[in-house]
Structure formats: structure tokens, C-alpha cells
Design brief:
18% strand; globular
């Protein structure tokens, strides 16, 4: 059912925990399945210098969080913002159809953290990040 990569990232997740000096924090959840992801980014000169995550959820949610952090660490924000849930799924050598939403949460958590980073700098994140569906945060549907 799960690829070796999914099992590896679930059993040995990378970049787990909080990042005390994070300057971008994003949290997203899926009420249908109960998964919650929180991403912590340390961004310097528009490059993700460090990243950590805390995920409450299934093995696929943990695996997608883990691999997503590896995919963005050391990358410029312009590249990180191009990350898609499909790229996360491909990096894990696939996910069962009923678990694709976990990859969507990973993408949204990263974009939520980047939005937080821009807000802290006094910059409207929506033109740069787009709407991440977190309407309490971005006010996109008000």
C-alpha cells in the first residue's frame, strides 16, 4: 500500500519539532480526517535556512511533512512557492488516492508559514503566495 520512501519518512521523520527562532509559522488542518500540520521556517535573505514540523495525523501525513521539509530546506522562497502537492507525492514514489489530501496539507502548511513570514515583514502575502484557503488568516473571501 505504501512505498518504501513513505515508510522510511514515517518511521524516521526528518526535521521534526519546533523551531524556536522561526520567523514564519503556519498551521493547517483537515477536519474530515483530523490531520494537523504545523510548519516552522527560519528564512534569511529570502532563503529557507531551516525548517521543522509537528504533525498530528496518520503515517502519510507525517511522511508528507517530512519529505516536504527536505524539499524546501536551503531553497529560495521563489522556488519553495513552486512546490506542489504532486511534487510531494512524486518524491514519496506515490500515495494511495485516499491519502493525497496529506500532500495537499503539506503544501498548504508551507505556504501558510511563508504567508506568516511576509505578514511579519508588513507585506501582503496574497499576491506572492496566493490564497491558501485559510480565510481567517488571509481574508480572501471577506
Amino acid at each position: 500500500m505504501y512505498s518504501e520512501k513513505v515508510m522510511d519518512h514515517f518511521s524516521n521523520p526528518r526535521n521534526v519539532g519546533e523551531l524556536p527562532d522561526a520567523n514564519g509559522i503556519g498551521e493547517v488542518g483537515n477536519p474530515k480526517c483530523g490531520d494537523i500540520m504545523k510548519m516552522y521556517l527560519k528564512i534569511e535573505n529570502d532563503v529557507v535556512k531551516d525548517v521543522r514540523f509537528k504533525t498530528f495525523g496518520c503515517g502519510a501525513a507525517i511522511a508528507t511533512s517530512s519529505i516536504a521539509t527536505e524539499m524546501i530546506k536551503g531553497k529560495p522562497l521563489s522556488e519553495v512557492l513552486q512546490l506542489t502537492n504532486s511534487a510531494v507525492v512524486n518524491a514519496l514514489d506515490g500515495l494511495p488516492p485516499q491519502k493525497i489530501h496529506c500532500s495537499v496539507l503539506a503544501e498548504q502548511a508551507i505556504k501558510s508559514a511563508i504567508s506568516d513570514y511576509y505578514r511579519r515583514k508588513g507585506i501582503d502575502p496574497e499576491p506572492l503566495v496566493g490564497c491558501i484557503g485559510d480565510c481567517d488568516s488571509c481574508g480572501c473571501h471577506e
